[in-house]
Amino acid sequence: MIIFKKTILALTGLFICVFLVAHLGANFLLLLPHETARTYYNAYSLALRSNVFITVIAYINYACIVFHVLYALLITMKNRSARKSSYEINKANENSSWTSQNMLLLGFLILGFIVIHMANFWYKVKILHIEEDLYQMVFDLFHEPLYVLIYVTAAIPIGLHLSHGVQSAFKTLGLYHLKYMKWIAKISVVYAWITGVGFAIIPLVVYFR
Ligand code: HEM
Hints:
Elements: H1 2-27, H2 34-50, H3 52-84, H4 92-95, H5 98-101, H6 103-127, H7 134-141, H8 145-172, H9 181-208
Helix pairs in contact: 1-3, 1-8, 1-9, 6-8, 8-9
The chain binds protoporphyrin IX containing FE.
């Protein structure tokens, strides 16, 4: 049963990773010169809302986020109760990194960020149907120092969580062959850095523009 739970955690996590690549790519449009960015970013936003395929992907992504959180909690609870009833000495500190031991904490920090982030954009666009200039919405938000700080700081738990999470997902899915181990670990860390630094520089560039 634990294998099933870990497989769900790995698959939902990897799906979210693919979403993040697309999301970061789209948000890199914000780095273009002001008016060019407005044109392309608003065209992307319109495409998001009018495409049925993208709408289906968005719903799968929401489900992945919910199941990822749920299964992370279930696995952690199971591990804790197993550890309590075991006589084995826990050598976690000696055997693993700070990141791998604090994935749940990092996950909750990211979840907190996602709630704020959804209130910033998703709620206004999808629920209130504010058909405003989305570029302007992002531009205005990233001219508030508090939000710049929140978005830049959130990139730290995101980067750390991904750097361990991606390689861990490959291990769970049995794709962590000895031959490719080093490569998968390297790709995970590079992916995590690009995603973390990428999401952190966007608010900074917009703020100082
Ligand atoms: C520079 C940073 C970011 C910017 C400017 C940004 C911008 C946006 C915008 C404008 C939307 C609403 C799009 C729409 O509904 O039309 C959105 C949705 C979303 N963002 Fe971000 N985002 C950023 C970072 C992140 C990060 C780091 C995460 C995850 C950790 C994230 C997760 C999401 C999710 C899950 C949605 C909902 C997607 C959907 O409804 O299909 N975003 N973002």
